[in-house]
Amino acid sequence: MGFLTRTAVVSGLLLGLLAGCGSGQNPAATAGPVLKKKLAPSDPLAPYLVAAVASTKAGTPPIPVQVKFALKDHPQAGQPADLELVLTPTAGTLERLSGKVQGEEGLAVVAGETLPVTDKPLEGVPVHHTVQVTASKDGIYELTVEVVADAGGVPSAQSFSIPVVAGQGQADLSVGGTVSAPTVAGKAAPATPAPAH
Length: 197
Known about the structure:
By secondary structure, the protein is mainly beta. The chain is 11% helix and 43% strand.
């Protein structure tokens, strides 16, 4: 091996060693231990959950609770249907969670009307509650969940709305400017002309 070739090889090795030290090091190799975000336990309902609509009053801050729901079955008129409520605290300062569930006229809450008291709920840990409702007839109803959150001995309340579609729901406007009613006893009801404007 010639002098120049040997010098080039040695120089290349030295450069390679220097590149592995000092400022050229991989940041991951010099950094401290990697902190991984703790993931919540897998929730089989998670993909099916829908956020409830929070009602807010002017000048009143929202409570640090996220409310979601999932209907286990499509509600049918006169038949009870289960609805899963999931309340997730978004702050670690809560001392207690409680509340109640009410249905508008035509939608009865037959079980689970009262949210059981949860003392010292943990931030990010969901609280599950099952509500059973029965609709008197086909239609679109509103279920109201009033959640009370205590922080620092001061209770704050906020209402959340959940739409419940029973049976065929309500009548829809068709393209021809008429109102088509849902099917009744296997036969479509006659169309009603839309009111003139």
